[in-house]
Every structure is written in structure tokens, then in C-alpha cells.
Amino acid sequence: MTDFDTFKPHLETAQPQLLQYLNTFQNAKILVIGDLTLDEFLTGQVERLSREAPVLILRHEITQQIPGGGANAVYNLAKLGAKVNVVGLVGKDAQGEALRQIFQASGIDTQGMLVDPSRPTVTKTRIAGHARQSVTQQIVRVDRKSDQLPTREIQMQLAEIIQAQLSQVDAVVCSDYGEGVLTAPVIEAALQHDRVIVDTQKALHRYQGATVFTPNLPEAEQAVGYPVQDNAFLQRAGEDLLKLTQAQQMLITRGEEGMSLFSAQGETQHIPAFNRTDVFDVTGAGDTVVSALTLALCAGASFWEAAILGNLAASIVVRQFGTATTSVTEMQEALATLLEDVSVL
Is residue 287 annotated as a catalytic residue, yes or no? Predict the structure, then answer.
């Protein structure tokens, strides 16, 4: 695999063009179709044990609500300056309204967010507590979701909304967390665009013909049905995934090992991790990769250049706890830092 010292001269050569792409991120208009999730964080101070049951009593301090799942991809794109239209489902509940308000405050077009009264907004509520002058720890997580697919009528409504917007956007992102939005009619409508970026946790074959897929290593292993034990298996997996999906490119993200990009033309390129030491939380990093990659492609970048910018964006958000986003300014600064001082890695 490629280490950073070997890769650095290539990064230095590419820097001027990469900066030019970053400066045009705000020109892109992206349609995101996704399983929209609200991440809630309820935090409080432990007061005592309850007399009712052997459980802690927390005095509530703060509740934070952050876009998660497919909504995180939407939010990442908006924070990087893109014009974003979102298509997905929320319930007729406070969580769905909170998600809509977060999006609207960031300038995201929410007309494609349908309300399905029969389903709750997918919500992951993390309850955390701390004693005085101690570290906050998660105690329990409560999930709200439906195991049922949307009705055929709603599936077709979503497909119609997508078809109506295809001519107005530069790319389509499918952010599939398996919560039921991306059914066959929805996927068929999305694939009518000529630039479709897919981030799905399973069943990659449903998106045959998409432009590029971005599975992480466990997702890639699940899709091919064997463990990726070494470089030879990695190469085989990339080739098998391209056959499975008929995609132009397959980008396998590999955590501290970086990324590997496989093309339908038989070319393989490896990109090292840009941050190995200051990794605090990888939650949502995949959404960040997809967002920066998509905007780079819309700016005219090659797949290799786009993967570098996706890698760069992810190296920033993993330094933060929880679901995080980055900005063009942060990416510009991070690129300069990478080239100035290898010791920061």
C-alpha cells in the first residue's frame, strides 16, 4: 500500500487543482435521496439512584439534535456550500419537524421530504450522564423506526419527485441506511441521472449502472462474500464489486489504511489515510467522504482527485466526537497543513 511519504509528491502536484475544485463547490446542485435520521443526544448529571428501580436519575442539562444517517449526507453537502435538494420520509412527529427546520436553516430545499403518518421519523436518542467533574458516558440508546416498507403509493410519489428534479441537478446521491426509502421504484428513478453516487450498507447490486460506489471495508466484504485478508484479496474484491455493480468506479474506504479506487478500465489507485493519530469518532465519516467526492466530481475533478478530497474531508471530521461536518475553509487549511508538516499525521 501507498504510505504518505510516497504519496506526498503527488499531493503537492495536485494541490493547485484541488484548491480550484474546492473554490467551486458552491456552484453544484445536488439531489440527495436518503434514509433521513435524527440523532438526539440527551445529557444530564447523575443525582442518585432511583427508589423505584435500580437505575440512575439524571437531572437534564441539554438536548442536541443533529442530522444522522442519510440526513448527515444532506447536511454535509450543505455545509460544504452546495445547493441541496433532499428526498426522503419523515413521520408526523416532533423529530421530523426538527429535522426539517435544521435543513431549512441551512438553506436546504425540503419540498421532497414527504410526511408518512404511519411511520415515525427514524430517531436515535442517546442518553448520557456524568457525575460532577467526570467524563460524560452514554448510558442507553433508544431507537424509533419502522420495519415496514412505505406503501406502494408513497414509493411512487418519491419516484415522481426524483424524476421531476433530475434535469435540475448536477449529481444524485443515494444514501441508503436500510430504513426503507430506497425501494426499487426510487432507485430506478435515481439511476436515470448520468452521475449517481451510491453509499449503501448492503445489496449493492440493486444500483447496477451507478457511477461510483463508496463502501467501507466491512460492507465490501459482505457484498463479495469473503474476507479481505491482504492486498491480493483487496484487488479481487474491487474487481468483483465492479462486476457486481457495473459501476464506472469503486472506492473502498479502509479506515486507517486509507482508500482504494478501482476503475472499470482495470486501474487501481491507493490513497493513504491523511489522519491516523487524532481519530476520536468515525461516526458519519462515510457521509463526509461521499459529500466531498460528489462535489469534486461536479467541479470537474477526476475520480482520483475527488477521492483525495473525500479522504481529506473525512480526516477532519474524525477528529470530532459525534456526527460532524466540515467546510471548504477547513479543507483548504487541512490541505496546506498536510503539505507543510508530515509530523501532524
Answer: yes
Read off the pTM: 0.91
Q: What is the pLDDT of residues 167-193, one digit of tens each?
A: 999 999 999 999 999 999 999 999 999
Q: Assign a CATH topology to domain 4-37+69-120+146-338.
A: UDP-N-acetylmuramoyl-L-alanine:D-glutamate ligase (3.40.1190)
Residue range 74-110, pLDDT digits in tens? 999 999 999 999 999 999 999 999 999 999 999 999 9
Collapsing DSSP to helix, strand or coil, 158 comes out as helix
Residues belonging to the chain: 345
| Domain ranges within the chain, ordered by starting residue | 4-37+69-120+146-338
Compute the distance between CA of residue 191 and CA of residue 168 in angstroms, rounded to an integer.
15
End-to-end CA distance of the chain, in Å?
17
Catalytic option among 109, 281, 287, 341: 287
311-330 core/surface letters (b: 16 or more CB in 10 A; e: else): bbbbbbbbeeeebbbbbbeb
